[in-house]
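Supplementary Note 3. Input sequence used for the single-chain structure prediction.
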Amino acid sequence: MSAHTESDVLVIGSGIAGLAAALAAAREGADVTVATKATRPEGSASWWAQGGIAVARDDPEQFKRDVLAASDGTADPDAVDVLVENANDAVEDVLLETLDVAFDEAQGDFDFGREAAHSADRILHVDASTGKHVHVPFLNYLDDHDGVRIRDDTAALELIRHEGRAHGAVLESDGEFAPHFAGSVVLATGGIGDLYPRSTNPAGSTGDGIAMAALAGAEVTDMEYVQFHPTVCVANDSPFLVSEAVRGEGAVLRNGEGERFMPDYHEDAELAPRDVVARAVQTERDATGEVLLDVRPLDFAGAFPDLVEKCEDHGVDWETGIPVVPAEHFCCGGIDVDDRGRTSLDRLYAVGECSRTGVHGANRLASTSLLEGLVWGLRAGADAAGTDAEVVEAPELLERDPELPDRFAAEKFRRLRRVMDEYVGLERDPEDLGRAMAVLRRLKGEVDAYTRTRTSRSLYELRSASVTALLIARQAAANDESVGCHHLAESPSTDAESDAPEPRADD
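The predicted structure, written as discrete structure tokens, is reproduced below.
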């Protein structure tokens, strides 16, 4: 390994949560390093966020009720209080006063939108491309901040842990790896999209933070709650998300026979919670061959010019309906944290999608992910400051054996995704979860054997994915309550842990 580096706070990840943590720590006088796998700016999930960022406006209690209702009553009320009570101030401080984000306006005020399961218009947005209009100025602002250094294209391979405390991480950049020691570490590594064949996440969403934290001994909970977005266009095998804001403006879902079907599934129809809509879309696709999002009831071109451009780029005639399918979107569980983002491992924090704050419970309310990342990022960053780095013994990563074939990781990922898609997707069967765990245990064992003597980013990403996938399957098998994103096809059986055959011989 190369010579080590140091900073007061190490933030791993550069989405809104990581950047908020870096900003807050720097405001406290800390020397901050942000290490991110992403290459700017598209590598971060925050850049891809479409709908917007919800705020409490003048009724935090109503906002709280909506969050709890969307979670099917499973969200932590205390965590939701933290979210809704800090929402307005966090957005005002960072997005409006610091970054001067130009949210859409109408008639002299913000053009607050509404999305599924919201009972009021409360979502700030910039067309259907809110993420990039927040993320890019945030990166630019921190680039000019004396207390923050951003290291692009830099992956964290493993946490440095000593005597029950996090002391930094081993970082890899351009094939070279070295320890980076820090007084505190903030994980902000985003989601798990690479575990599924269809996802709205950017490439490289391999659950790195969740896996590193779990391997270091931190508590990880609620991993069975994987949210699928109901309206992802897959024309020409190049998926793109069609924001829930489109349904909020009046678009309706029709099956292959031209019938509007959502009123048959839920009283709120197209604006039902995401888990309900996603399962309904899949059911109707299975029954009738396709589902189209009918945007004729609204001024689609006027309200969503960015989505019109995407449709045209993908050869989709939106005037006749946008073909949609459910796709993995957001992990509601993750590294268990408190109201300051503190994990069960001393001086280790987690924020954003890789964390489990308790806000989302079994199902996330639309347009709360950016807000959660902002609120917990600010709180965690401020708390993480004030501790000096200490140089301790770092994990020994070896390069004894020859490099693996170029297709090695890709082939293992194909196997992992097939198992997750077939057995740990929108609907789960307890026996199938047992089959998934059997396959994933074997896969993790194979990957572990390789990481003992080889070090590369692709191999460690594969390790992260296999660890995270196994956590999802295990926690899904352990939960016999069908709720929110964890939907069981039938009553649980007693042999969910049995080692069953792999799903297909060609895996």
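Residues 491-507 have pLDDT under 50 and may be disordered. The radius of gyration is 22 Å.
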